[in-house]
Amino acid sequence: MKSSVVKSFTFEAAHFLPNLKPGHKCGRVHGHSFRCEVVVTGEVDSITGFVIDFGDISAVCRPLHDLLDHRFLNNDVPGLENPTSEVICGWIWERLKPALPGLSKVILHETCTARCEYEGG
User: Fold this and answer.
1) Quick one: which of 12, 72, 96, 109 could link to 115 by a disulfide (CB 3.0–4.6 Å)?
2) Are 9 and 65 spatial neighbours (Cβ–Cβ below 8 Å)?
3) Best CA proximity match to 4, nearest among 90, 85, 107, 94
4) Which of 103, 101, 104, 105 is nearest to 117 (CA)?
5) Could you say which of 12, 24, 26, 81 is catalytic?
């Protein structure tokens, strides 16, 4: 049986988007309470009943949380000089994929009404 499991982590961070038209509100420094959902898909193990233990996903995500939380993304995190939701999703994917082979999606909620979904590639 194939299933997907989802584990979330949150981080607080400031950023600005440097490549926008002058006067765009996101061109100014501002912050978000980001919520990242990590989706792992695979076969359910016949013994454990898990695709993967949620604790294992948390352990893999913890170092990323520590890199992102309470940071100024543009300056503090290499690779996030233009930290759009799309770029952040790809950045997270690249760091999680080696440790989570079943990673199928990274979803980043920037606000309660705006999110990005990345499926690799």
Assistant:
1) 109
2) yes
3) 107
4) 105
5) 26
Active site residue 26: yes
Determine whether 36 is an active site residue: no
CB 100 within 8 A of CB 57: yes
Does position 22 have pLDDT exceeding 80, yes or no?
A: yes
Which of 70, 94, 117, 119 does the annotation list as catalytic?
70
**Contacts by residues 65-73 (CB-CB < 8 Å, ≥ 24 positions apart):** 65/9, 65/11, 68/11, 68/13, 68/34, 69/11, 69/12, 69/13, 70/11, 70/12, 70/13, 71/13, 71/14, 72/13, 72/14, 72/15, 72/29, 73/13, 73/14, 73/15
In angstroms, the first-to-last Cα distance of the chain is 25
CA dist., res. 78 & res. 52, Å (int):
30
Q: Is 70 a catalytic site residue?
A: yes
pTM of the model: 0.96
Q: Give the pLDDT of residue 54.
A: 98
| Each residue's pLDDT tens digit, 51-86 | 999 999 999 999 999 999 999 999 999 999 999 999
